[in-house]
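User: quick one - fold this with zinc ion bound?
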Amino acid sequence: MMKRFDPVDHDDFGYDCMGFMAETELGDWVSYEDAEAEIEALKDKIETITKQRDRMYDDMLLWRGIDRDGGDTPCKACSGAGVRAYGDTATWRGGIGGQVITNDICDKCWGSGKAKKPWLNLRRLSRQQRKDRSIHRLKRNQA
Ligand SMILES: [Zn+2]
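Assistant: Sure. C-alpha cells for the protein plus zinc ion:
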C-alpha cells in the first residue's frame, strides 16, 4: 500500500526534510507521521461505516420480522432474506436444472429468514403430495 522512501538527496525531489517519507496511493509523498495519522483516520472511518452497515442490516431484518436483539437468529443460508440464489434452475426442487443462477425460496428456513423457526418445508410437502397421488392412483385402479 505505502512505499517506504528513505530520501538520500532531498534536492532531487524538492523536499527539505530529515525524516522518512511515504508515497500515498495517489502518488503524493508525505511524512510517515502524516501517513500514520491518515491510516488511523481511515481505520476510524472503516469502524464507523461497519457500524452503519450493521445497523442497516438490523433494520432490514426487522422489516422481515427478525429481531436479533429479541433473540431471533437470521438464517445462515439466506442471511434472513428468505430467498437465495441457486446454481441452476432446479432450485430447491432438485433434479435436472439449466445453467442459470436462479433465485427461489430458501431451502433452509423456507422463507421465514429465521434459523430456528422455518416455515412449511416445501420439499417435504411436495414429496407427500406425490406419495398421496400414487396411493390415490393405486386405489382407483384396484376399484
Ligand atoms: Zn434462509
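One thing worth noting: The pocket of zinc ion is lined by residues 75, 77-78, 82, 106, 108-109, 113 (CB under 6 Å).
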